[in-house]
Amino acid sequence: IEMPIGAGPVDGSGTANYLARWIDSDTLGIGAAYDNGTNVGIGNNNPTAAKLVVFANSGYAFRTENTLGFTFRIEAASGNIYTTGDTYVQDGNKIRLGDNNDLQIYHAGGTTGSYIDNYVGHMRFNNYGNDTDIIFQNDDGAGGLTPYLTLDGGLTKTIFSKSTRHNDFVSAFFGSGDDLGIYHNGTKSAIENYVGNLEITNN
Description:
Layout: E1 2-5, E2 8-12, E3 18-24, E4 27-35, E5 40-42, E6 52-54, E7 60-66, E8 69-75, E9 81-83, E10 94-97, E11 103-107, E12 114-118, E13 133-139, E14 145-152, E15 157-160, E16 172-174, E17 180-184, E18 189-193
Parallel strand pairs: 2-4, 5-6
Antiparallel strand pairs: 1-2, 3-4, 4-5, 7-8, 8-9, 10-11, 11-12, 13-14, 14-15, 16-17, 17-18
């Protein structure tokens, strides 16, 4: 094309469906953006999978910035997502993990509560911090928090900081083969020993 604009003519050529860009001050060519009338691709001339398809082998597939630097980015090669801010998910919406949404994390809204739902395999909580603890805290009855159960990695002990209750007919078993059982059945309490002697020692 060539047409007079301002002080001189504009020339250049294009390719169907590619968005134009200025190659120099008076020449139009094609850019990286491709628009087939339905979907848009950047670096991709067959954007059929989504409304916007960005193709890149390295660097960032998508990046946002402010005056301090990046705030959000998607790495092109790895697909890893990085953000410098918080992530907000509204009530009832879930964070879904796994190919088949196998683990879901969400808040149902109001006082209904928060949920971690696992649908496939075991759920494991791993703490790799050397000599550190996993601490389960809850309301202390006065609006604060207090530990109820601590898995102490330094002492290698499970520490109960609050009383435990076994309801009627619910036994506490000890020994790899449930060798000692303690329970209350609603009318009496029982200590039942199934293997070896039952010894009570006062030191």
